[in-house]
Structure formats: C-alpha cells, structure tokens
Amino acid sequence: MPSNQRKPRVPTLKYTKSRNIGWHVSFRDPVTGTPRKHRFGMVSLQEAEKAYHEWVAAHLCGQTPGVKPKRRKKLDLHSITAKPSAEGVTAEILEGSLLHITSGLLRYEESRVRGSGEGRRQGSITRAVYDQRKVYAQEILEFLNIRHGQGAVGRMMLDHLGLDDVEAYNRAIFEAGYSSSQVTKRLQFMKAIIDRAGRPEHGGQVLGWNWSSRDVLHGKPAKKRKLPTLKQLQLVLEECGPRETAMVWTAIGCGFGQRDLAAIRVGQFDKKGYDLRRGKTGVERYGETPPLVWKVMQDYIKQTKRAKGELLFRTVKGMAIVHEHADSVTQWWSKLLKRQGKACKGMGGFYTLRHLGATEFGARPGCSISEVKRWLGHSASSDMADVYMKPISPENREVIEWIGNALRTGNADFPVKGKT
C-alpha cells in the first residue's frame, strides 16, 4: 500500500507496574519523531479506558502536544546595526583578508584534533572543541559581514577592523545572555584571529589600536553551586541498580565525572587504592579506595562477570558509557530526576556528585590543597581546589556527614534495586 494511503497506527493501551507508570500509551512525538509515553497513571481500568479514548481522538486529529527539541542558544544577528557606509562587495577573497586568516586558523585548529581513542598529547584538542571554535569563527565573520556589507570579510584587512567593531560584537554576545565563560571564549577566538594576522604569510599585519583599551562587557556569572540534600540523594540511590549504584558512589567517593567513569577498566581499582590517568588533563589520578566504593564495585563486577582489562562500565549494547557525542550517564541521570519529580527538582546534573564528594573530601581533618588537587585530578592551579577547603555550610552538613560515614564504614543502609 502506498505510504500516502496508510492508515495512522493507533497506539494501544498498556499497563505496567514499573516505576509506577500504570496505564499508558507509547507513540512517536509529532514534532521530533522520537518515542514518547503518555501516562494515565495507576487508575482503574474504566478510568484508563475513558481517558485513553479521549486521547486517541485528539491524537488522530493531530492535536497531540509536541515537545520542541532543545536548541543551543544562538546570537541574534538580525538585531545588529550595520555601519552607515556598509555596502555589499564582490565575493572576492584577498590574501591576508580576515576570511583568509580565519580559514588558515581553522585548518591549524583541525590539525590539532586527536583521533577517537587516541591518548591526550600536548597541544591536541578534541573534535568537540574544534567544532565549537568553528562555530565561533562563523559567528564572527557573519557579524562583520552584517556590519560592513555582505562579503566584506573577503577583502577586509586587519587595519579595517575597528575598536568599535570588537566592542559591538562584545555587546551583542553580552545581550544574547551568554555566560561569562562563553563571552570570554568568543573574544579569545577573535583575538586569535588578530594575532594570526601578524604571521609573515599574512603580511605581518598589526592593529592600529590597543586591544586592552577596549570597553569589556562580561557575560552572566556562574550560578552558585547547589548540592543535593540527603533526602534527594537517598531517593536517587533507591532507584539505582548495581551498575548505577557503583557509578554514583565512585563519582562521590573518588570524584570521577562521566568520562572518568567511562575510562575505568577492571583491575585499576583494588581494595586499598586506585591509580589511573585522567583523560581530561593527563594528570596522574591516584588515591585510596573508600570501602563503600570497593564494595559496590565488587557487587557490580560479580553480577556482570567483567574480565580484567575490560571496561568496567558499559551500555546495554556493550559500548563505553560515554563515546563521541553520546553520554548515556547524563541521559540516565536526567530521566531519573524527571521520574522523581519535585522531590529532586534543582538537584543538578550528574557532575554535581563530583562536587559533593569534593566538599566531603576537603572537609576532612588535615586535608591540604595539594591533596584536593590530586583527588580532583587537577594540575598546578589551586583555584578550584581552594573552593572546597572551607568549613561545611549548615545546610549541607547533614548530607556531607552521612556521605563521609558511608564511605568510611562501607555501609549506606539503602536497598539496591535488583538485589535481594
């Protein structure tokens, strides 16, 4: 039967006790095309059938509310004011023009990208970092084209770039609501383009004004870090199976983020300690294994029967839990918090557990900044380590003391899903 004559599939009414879903239907989102569930809840069959028929009628008429996919925040280039003299130019690209310089810079940045699975080497970057810098380049060039006329960057030399252009770009990204970090990264890339113009092949161009003299607008400050409460943490742990329990306590007890967890292999941990290199920074990562972390790891290994040298944490399909642009830990964590509803509202991402563990580690008697740096896997800078070298605030004392006791004794007194 031709596709345009197919009858729309009618989702069937189903029931499950899993996660207290109850009566529900499974269907594809009309906007994104992704699988979704519409829940009627743990109600009687009569109530579920009534609600189901009403829902099906609306669904077949195209009235199912869709969920728009989240998109990255973009700079509103339509609101940029062009200079009065801005006119369109021919699509000619001159040697030494801003477009020529930026293209060369991107080629250099791409040459630094390390391959998938390749170890970190000095001066290398990940594909994700390169992709982001490419976006910065496209944004800057498009901004200048609007300011000076379509195709202007193909013939603009560095001395055509005015202080007012840089300040206007700074104001545009500031008004777009970017964070302070995102504003800084964009301006740093613009400065990299300016610095590259001084190379011999570009004619040794220099600015006719002082970069440091510009008026600077910073983005939104980082939000104050909020740690989960004891009740929230216990609610999450009650929903975890052996694998998830091991991930949560390794994140708290050893300060491992998602990519750190994805790199652990069986045999790198023993009862006394662990020693492995953190992929993000290349800094040696070692320390004592908290009794509770060792206990939940052993429970998980016994269940999955992992061999020595294998990845400790893998997806159902046998892949690393974090690979390329896929992060199954973040996906699982987001769904878990969503199921908890208001009880875990504002709890933050999985990386919050690393901050939670660092707060507990930094509060231990006799703990030094160098020990916190080693625990975090950071290099020379002590700025981040110093954040955790402070007395515990009253609102966090309960959860921090509970975590410390659980890690030391190896007993958290919570039921583990899937275990008897």
Q: What gyration radius follows from the Cα positions, in whole Å?
A: 27 Å
Biggest beta-sheet profile: 3 strands, antiparallel
CATH class of the largest domain: Mainly Alpha
Instruction: Tell me the distance between the termini.
Output: 51 Å
Q: Strand order within the widest sheet?
A: 1-2-3
Structural class: mainly alpha
Taken in chain order, the helices and strands follow as EEEHHHHHHHHEEHEEHHHHH
Q: Which of globular, elongated, flat, extended, rod-shaped describes the shape?
A: globular
The CATH superfamily title of the largest domain: Intergrase catalytic core
* CATH-assigned fold name of the largest domain: hpI Integrase, Chain A
CATH architecture of the largest domain: Orthogonal Bundle
Low-confidence stretches: none
Q: Average pLDDT across residues?
A: 82
The tally of structural domains comes to 3
Q: Name the beta content range.
A: 5-15%
* Number of strand elements: 7
Q: What is the share of helical residues? A: 40-55%
In short:
42% of the residues lie in helices and 7% in strands.
List keywords for this structure.
single chain; 420 residues; mainly alpha; hpI Integrase, Chain A; three-stranded antiparallel sheet; two-stranded antiparallel ribbon; 7 strands; Integrase_catalytic; DNA_brk_join_enz; DNA binding
